[in-house]
Amino acid sequence: MTKRYSKKREQILSVLENAKAALSASSIHGKLPEIDKATIYRNLDLFVSAGTVKTLNFGGTETLYEYQHHPHHHAVCTDCEKVIHFTAPDEKIKKLLGLTDFQIDEMEVTVKGICKNSK
Q1: Cα 110 vs. chain centroid, distance in angstroms?
Q2: Which of 19, 98, 109, 116 has the most other CB atoms within 10 Å of its CB?
Q3: Largest separation between any pair of C-alpha atoms in the chain
């Protein structure tokens, strides 16, 4: 990622690694109030550029940041906003898409609907 060690950077990444869900910069700041928001955003940008953290936009007002321990996709309940993580074979998805003349470098599938708890 970067060559320089930063205790603040380590703290921000630790919050993301240990989170049960994707977090906004405001949520991270709430957990680390001693670190100013500009520093949090700057480090989140570094993590995203390095591929350590992914950004997620599920239609809310804030971008969410997620440390992905392993590649996965998301199902979002449009009623209660619950996010379900799931895996699916990327090769099968590529085949279903039928994009034979297109090199896919990264894939993020987001499915929106109503979860069983909202019915």
Answers
A1: 11
A2: 19
A3: 50
Closest by CA to 67, choosing from 86, 85, 48, is 48
Per the structure block, which two tokens stand in for 95?
């085949």
Q: Which of 38, 44, 49, 5 is nearest to 23 (CA)?
A: 44
CA distance 83 to 16: 16
The residue among 69, 51, 65 whose CA lies nearest residue 1 is: 51
Model confidence over 46-58: pLDDT tens digits?
A: 999 998 999 988 8
Q: pTM above 0.90?
A: no
* Identity of residue 116: K
Give the tokens for residue 80: 């209660």
Whole-angstrom distance, CA of residue 20 vs CA of residue 30 = 15
List all residues 6 or more positions away from 45 whose beta carbon is below 8 Å from its beta carbon: none
